[in-house]
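User: I'm preparing a small set of examples for a lab meeting where we compare how different chains pack in three dimensions. I only have the primary sequence for this one, and I'd like the structure in token form so I can line it up with the others. Please keep the answer compact; I'll paste it straight into my notes.
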Amino acid sequence: ASIGKSHKAEVNHLANKLRSLTDQLDETKLQTKDYEEFIESWVHEIKTPISLVTLVLENRKKEMSELVYQRLEYARINISDDVEQILFYARLRASHVDYHLEKISLSLCCEDVLFELQALLDEKEVKVVSQMEDIPIVSDKKALQFIFVQIFVNVVKYSNEEIDSFIWLKTGFDSAKNRYYLRISDNGTGVLNSDLPFIFDKGFTGDNPDRKQSTGIGLYLVKKLCDELKIEIEVESEYRKGFLIQFLFPIMEDASKK
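Assistant: Understood. Below is the structure token output for the 258-residue chain.
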């Protein structure tokens, strides 16, 4: 009888413990949801003044010198990118992320991003050399644009000011992997060999003195999004010579046709 009572007490203790853990989990989920909603709301609020700045810059462009306009637009693009990083970071922390998969032109998506970042490229006099074909892929357009922004912003940020700076873009089909690819390379400061395996780690800035101002979040988010969208990444770099990143896209049917 004493064994039965002891067993019953143990079961009751475990049941109470389980209920307590379940309550804690529910509370954590609620806090996470509140956090996500707060970030979404904050980003929405901050985008309003950014949109206003964009509008003012467009309407008053002729009243400014080219240099002043370029500097203001450069600052606006960087602020917008920081806000987008916060938004995507919060979304990727969510328990479930909805992606809108659609058929899009890889080259057009890339060109749209470059157009938006033109002031950034002009500020550092980075020239674009494109060998892109009109390749159709199925992916999430907003996520893909965010990925490209992170890469191009990094190219500009780590361009070598001692030489003429270039971005080379090339698309094609990798028959060995049965995937379309987008190759983005530059002749910037590059990445140390010892740092290369860790560039996608959250918060990693490495030993390169050029990267001390970096938060280490941009490439981390790029890798997370690519993993979610089944996009493979390959990187190569030679310090002080340049950096290459290749995206390999799966061949998928148009999700909207299903």
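A couple of notes for your slides: Residues 2-59 form the longest helix (58 residues). The chain has a mean pLDDT of 86.

User: Perfect, thanks.
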